[in-house]
Design a protein that fits this description.
- The protein is an all-alpha fold and 386 residues long.
- It is built from 17 helices and two strands.
- The protein has a single domain, classed as Farnesyl Diphosphate Synthase (Orthogonal Bundle).
- The chain has a two-stranded antiparallel ribbon with strand order 1-2.
- The radius of gyration is 20 Å and the shape is globular.
- Its cofactor is Mg(2+).
Length: 386
């Protein structure tokens, strides 16, 4: 990275300066947390790379990977551990059947099939070949994306900024039902049954409960609600026709990133990372680094399409171009450098945490690495972005 580009990335990550602004700086999230002793457990066994394996626990490493038309700087990413077209097709076919059952995307199921959320699950969770577990991961992600389409982005599906917050408030009730309240509960159930997105989220949450512990279930419900807080900010910016500064967008995006999808890693893998390990500061920082990097990939693949919208979504590339007054290509280069910064941060965190003798933690970190790799591959091949 040249000095001018490095200075731009550092400035954007540092955020505003002046009295009262330090708490808002995104850079705070990148600083090492105080070292806290982690629970001890069995030392994980290592496996050498074996590209022929359909699943398993091994790291194929990291590399600079070309993307798009190959004309932009490469993205530093983990390499993909598994590509299995047959397994992807099976999971995706079952997912499309489920989408028809719950009622999302009627008349658009071919486009939904082309999006390939089943393939995303297979790419992003190379540890398992279990179709039911992979189908759960695909359902959960598809339901989250459906709420984005129906509530936030696609006006022809009914999305409206002023309707977004009250709609999102029902999501938690669909996934985590409140205590019975007589006729008011009946009215809530009628509202959920009338909304295919809420039906999809409730169905996915039901599948979650079959596979997960109570702690993991509440982790997913809480993280989903956390993600939707950022969506309310996007709706306000869109309704007012204003663009947030890059630092504020990144601050919101950290909690509306593929970190949410990565919270499924141990559930799909068939084990549990203890909550005290999952939320330990160094582990949490590593997962947030990975989630933010992965969502910048999403912004990069979406930038051209969103730039053509009359009222574009918040996108880090477009916001950098506006804030810096630079051409879109320079903004892409800055976003790529920012992505690579976060990935290298995760890689460093992963190496630091390798000394912790917890098999579940090492599996989880490897799973997060696998999600970054699979998400990158999926964005380059999904009909949703190509």
């Amino acid at each position: 990275m040249d000095e001018q580009l490095a200075a731009r990335v550092n400035r954007l990550l540092a955020g505003p300066t002046g009295l009262g602004t330090s708490a808002a700086r995104v850079a705070d999230a990148l600083r090492p947390s105080p070292v806290v002793p982690l629970p001890r457990g069995p030392v994980p066994s290592s496996s050498p790379p074996s590209p022929g394996r359909r699943g398993g626990r091994f790291s194929p490493g990291y590399a600079e990977r070309e993307w798009g038309d190959g004309s932009f700087p490469p993205l530093y990413c983990p390499l993909t551990a598994r590509v299995d077209d047959d397994l992807s097709r099976e999971v995706n076919d079952r997912l499309v059947e489920w989408a028809e059952e719950v009622g999302i995307y009627p008349g658009r199921l071919d486009r939904f099939r082309d999006a390939g959320f089943g393939r995303l699950a297979v790419l992003a969770h190379p540890e398992t070949d279990d179709v039911d577990s992979l189908l759960f991961g695909a359902k959960m992600n598809a339901a989250w994306w459906a709420s984005d389409d129906y509530y936030a982005d696609e006006s022809d599906l009914g999305a409206a900024p002023t309707e977004l917050p009250p709609r999102l408030a029902l999501v938690t009730s669909a996934m985590d039902p409140p205590p019975p309240a007589g006729k008011y509960t009946d009215q809530l159930e009628e509202a959920i049954a009338a909304d295919p997105v809420l039906v999809a989220l409730r169905s996915a949450a039901g599948h979650l409960r079959r596979l997960a512990t109570p702690s993991q279930v509440m982790r997913i419900c809480t993280t989903t609600s956390q993600m939707y807080v950022s969506w309310a900010a996007y709706a306000a910016w869109r309704h007012l026709g204003t663009s947030p500064p890059v630092w504020r967008y990144l601050a919101a995006r950290q909690h509306d990133s593929f970190y949410t999808s990565m919270t499924l890693v141990d559930i799909v893998g068939g084990y549990q990372l203890d909550a005290n390990l999952f939320y330990e500061p160094r582990v949490h920082r590593a997962a947030m680094q990975a989630g933010t990097a992965a969502v910048i990939v999403n912004d990069l693949f979406s930038a051209e399409k969103e730039a053509a919208d009359d009222l574009p979504d918040c996108n880090v590339v477009l916001l950098i171009a506006e804030e810096e007054g630079c051409p879109l290509r320079e903004a892409v280069e800055t976003a790529v450098a920012m992505h690579n910064h976060f990935v290298r941060g995760f890689e460093a965190s992963q190496k630091e945490l390798a000394a912790v003798p917890s098999q579940e933690l090492q599996r989880f970190l490897l799973g997060v690495q696998g999600w970054m790799a699979g998400g990158f591959d999926w964005h380059g091949t999904s009909g949703r972005y190509n």
